[in-house]
């Protein structure tokens, strides 16, 4: 299945904890498609940001329970990818 890189990497996760990893370990967090494999994520990040990816770690996140008045449900499930770049390379988010 051939997918576009923009469909695999949905958005960068800009959080306080995520930015600490960027500054100290050269690791960048992204929200990715839940069905994406590590090799696809690596290829997509390299294509989108013109960098060399050293390692990819992924985490599947479950949806949280929510309710509104009489309706109960959950938020959507999603996948997080922590991408480690080669030394000396960076990604500019803003």
Describe this protein's structure.
The longest helix is centred in the middle third of the chain and has 12 residues, at 38-49. This protein is α+β, with helices and mostly antiparallel strands. β4 and β5 (71-74) form a beta hairpin. It has helices at 5-8, 16-25, 38-49; strands spanning 9-12, 27-32, 53-61, 65-68, 71-74, 78-85. The mean pLDDT is 92. The protein has a 4-stranded antiparallel sheet.
Mean pLDDT: 92
Number of separate domains: 1
Let me know the number of strands: 6
Strand order of the largest sheet: 1-2-6-3
Q: CATH H-level name... which superfamily?
A: RRM (RNA recognition motif) domain
Task: Tell me the fraction of residues in β-strands, as a range.
Answer: 35-45%
Distance between the termini: 31 Å
Question: Which architecture per CATH?
Answer: 2-Layer Sandwich
Encode the helix/strand succession as letters.
HEHEHEEEE
| Radius of gyration over C-alpha positions, nearest whole angstrom | 15 Å
- Broad CATH class: Alpha Beta
Question: Which residues sit in consecutive blocks of at least 5 with pLDDT less than 50?
Answer: none
Helix content: 25-40%
Biggest sheet features: 4 strands, antiparallel
Q: Helical segment tally? A: 3
What name is given to the CATH topology?
A: Alpha-Beta Plaits
The secondary structure category is alpha+beta
- The shape, in one word, is globular
């Amino acid at each position: 299945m051939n997918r576009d890189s923009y469909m695999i990497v949905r958005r960068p996760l800009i959080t306080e904890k995520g930015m600490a990893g960027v500054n100290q370990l050269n690791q960048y967090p992204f929200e990715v498609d839940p069905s994406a494999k590590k090799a696809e994520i690596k290829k997509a990040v390299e294509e989108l940001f013109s960098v060399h990816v050293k390692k990819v770690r992924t985490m599947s996140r479950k949806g949280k329970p929510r309710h509104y008045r009489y309706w109960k449900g959950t938020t959507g499930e999603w996948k997080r990818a922590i991408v480690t770049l080669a030394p000396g390379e960076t990604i500019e988010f803003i």
